[in-house]
Input
Amino acid sequence: MLIAVASGKGGTGKTTVAVSLALALAGSEKVQYLDCDVEEPNGHLFLKPRLETKEPVTVPVPKVDQSRCTFCGRCAEICAYHALAVLAGSVLTFPELCHSCGGCWYFCPEKALTPAAREIGWREEGWATERIAFTHGRLNVGVAISPPLIQAVKERRLSGAAAIIDAPPGTSCPAIKAVEGSDFCLLVTEPTPFGLHDLELAAEMVRALGIKSGIVVNRSDGRDQEVEEFSRKYGLPILLRIPLDRQVAAAYARGLPLLAARPQWREDFLALWEKCKKVACH
Amino acid sequence: MKIAISAPSKNPADPVDSRFGRCSFFAVVDADQEKWEFIPNPGASSGGGAGIQAAQELVKRGVRAVITGRVGPNAAAVLQAAGIKLYTAGGKSVQEAYRQFLNNELAPLTGANAMPHAGIRGR
Output
């Protein structure tokens, strides 16, 4: 079972929900936490894993052998991202624009281009509370393309574990990369106009991906009228409401998970997992 | 010698487009024959790397000098590596900028004077 925790808007509580699920399940199941929010991973702040391995993650970018190059310009012509420019006697490359499609070295008639590794970030792994296998990615500052690193985190999925993905916010390539392939997607929102607006975008995204989903309302005011209306209109169930709670906020500010402040809510997260499972397998 | 001027339209009386990578047209002038041609900038509609694409096009056409407003770091790297001279002519008409270039009255640029993606703003 692989559940992604996503949201259109940032700061709605993806990590709060993902961490709570992991901690609630850790009592009874083998749990894996995959933090795919590689631009700003923060699951480790709450789960405090002991990180045991750290590996660089690289992507292939073109390297030019100027002695073989005839400056024909074919590579610059086919590059959709303009990561190469060919001048009369030299080739300039812009690795930060390269999407690693491999087209340039495939089509180079002189075999003057070869793939070279460019480090984009790090994958770190370890254990949290002995029972939660923890993996996250950290994108290097200045790198704009995160999906290959998200892929590297997802590749570490353990079969048989209850796996939880903490996805990046938004609905663009990184969010899609994180969510695709999951059995179910929890869409975390908040009862504000911004939360609702971006919930709709996220719901469209998972629908397009063909992934079943449900809503978690964080900082619920108890009524959540607009989210309710959206839920009815869209046919997406509200699976959990997390009340606006000062104690949870105070714990969060100290780097403590929600369940440390409200241990009695553990049952609610176990019930949430069961609901996800039921819908996913239906 | 060919000179390219970033332009918002095909009208030489319009002001020089301050954006290099994202301008709509380039006025390409063959100074030896006083021959004017307006070409669409392939970078105008580019998903990314607009400045590089625009610069590559001008390199291919044998342009030796560029008159514009602002140039980002990637476009400047391509233009400079190709030995193309850069000049700024903000606020002047395309025609006037060309005349001032011929009279050596334009300020030369030694490198980028804009942040990456600056030309996307205000579209």
Residues 276 and 282 of chain A are 10 Å apart (CA to CA). The longest strand of chain A covers residues 113-128. The radius of gyration of chain A is 22 Å.
